[in-house]
Specification:
The protein is α+β, with helices and mostly antiparallel strands. Helices cover 36% and strands 35% of the residues. The relative contact order is 0.12.
Length: 387
């Protein structure tokens, strides 16, 4: 049975109480692009934004990669679809934490969850995978992103469903797994283009001053010193910090978008690593986040780093006027467990809500920083064990 290139698209825009909707079964990537080119301008017109260009150059290679039949994949069909729904006059209720994401499909596994703030836009992302609803031996991947901004709310859902010719659920799961990264890239890009069409392009941050850069370099220098002292303490030969680490740290620590305002601020990074023998696998459930801290987890994702698998929980904290992001990454390989705990703290004058707004806007950069250090630790442990 050949792989079926297919997708279903439903787009609806609510404006002044009137709903316009389109539904289509798409036969190939070109037809899907044509549907996007018809839908995104609808979002733009509803919000008074400029008409976006054709999506062909962007999405043709993305859809081709996401839907291609890999040689090692079981025979069957793979279908992708998405739904875009916007209302300039509403604000959506956002998920509070990863537990709300898990409740969306109790029989599925949460792969990724985040609450985000980017300037005056806030929202959540929830990505799950699990058996198909229908009793057909299928497997699904579902991503939901809900965004609120000055121009209203945008709901975007992306889904992929696989059915193996064998009728075996494990084969369908394998089909999704093999194309997983490419499928998520497509989903993320659809959300990004829908947001751009409905809410306009993201604001460009101001340039950092020399004084700001120098202050951040002092923070990073202290972090590099801590990292150099870590290896002997945990018994591994730690590789140097990843290339680009300074740039990630600068992106987190600089007071954006508050640069240019008269704010006194200070940022700091902290981390600790623990390595222990542990054959038990305990890293595959979002409820582990709730066991680690009483605060809601604003971020969760499953991870695979080298030969280790695990999870990442991200929390938002406040204590004595200082706000922070606290990260706990747990990775296991059946023999060892590596726990990497990291935090970035921000002290700034002004009201706590203002400090949290800034910190939430740096969540993506902070997460990249946390994952880079954890990946470096795992790679160093594997290199040490291999000697």
């Amino acid at each position: 049975m050949r792989l079926i290139f297919a997708a279903a698209l439903a787009a609806s825009i609510v404006l002044a109480g009137e709903v316009a909707a389109q539904d289509a079964d798409i036969e190939d990537a070109d037809a899907l692009i044509a549907e996007l080119d018809a839908t995104l301008p609808m979002l733009a017109r509803a919000a008074g934004q400029p008409t976006p260009p054709s999506m062909g150059p962007i999405f043709r290679p993305l859809f081709t990669a996401a839907l291609r039949k890999r040689p090692e994949a079981p025979e069957g069909s793979l279908i992708i679809g998405f739904d875009l729904n916007a209302n300039p006059n509403e604000r959506a209720e956002l998920m509070a934490d990863v537990a709300a994401c898990a409740a969306l499909r109790p029989d599925a596994t949460v792969l990724r969850f985040s609450r985000f703030v980017e300037g005056d836009v806030e929202g959540h992302e929830c990505v799950l995978t699990g058996p198909a609803d229908a009793d057909d031996g299928g497997w699904t991947l579902l991503a939901e992103t809900v965004t609120n901004g000055p121009g209203g709310r945008l709901n975007a859902r992306f889904a992929a469903a696989a059915v193996a010719e064998s009728g075996v659920v494990a084969d369908a799961h394998r089909m999704i797994e093999l194309n997983f990264v490419d499928l998520l890239i497509v989903g993320d890009r659809i959300v990004a283009e829908a947001r751009r069409a409905f809410m306009g392009p993201p604001p460009v941050p101001a340039e950092a001053t020399d004084a700001e850069l120098e202050e951040v370099r002092e923070v990073v220098s202290d972090l590099e010193r801590q990292f150099a002292e870590l290896g002997p303490r945990v018994g591994i030969d730690l590789a140097p910090l990843p290339e680009g680490y300074l740039n990630q740290a600068v992106a987190v620590a600089l007071p954006r978008p508050l640069a240019g305002d008269d704010h006194d601020w200070g940022a700091s990074f902290d981390f600790e690593v623990d390595i222990e023998r542990s054959p038990a696998a305990t890293t595959d459930a979002p409820h582990l986040c709730r066991q680690q801290r009483p605060e809601p987890a604003i971020g969760y994702e499953t991870l695979r780093l080298g030969g280790y698998v695990g999870h990442h929980c991200l929390f938002e904290l406040e204590h004595d006027g200082v706000v922070g992001l606290w990260s706990r990454i747990v990775m296991e390989n059946g023999e060892d467990r590596i726990t990497v705990i990291q935090g970035v703290s921000l002290a700034m004058d002004g009201d706590p809500p203002e400090r949290f707004t800034y910190l939430r806007g740096r969540r993506a950069e902070a997460t990249a920083l946390f994952l880079a250090l954890a990946a470096n630790t795992v790679a160093s442990k594997e290199a040490t064990d291999g000697r």
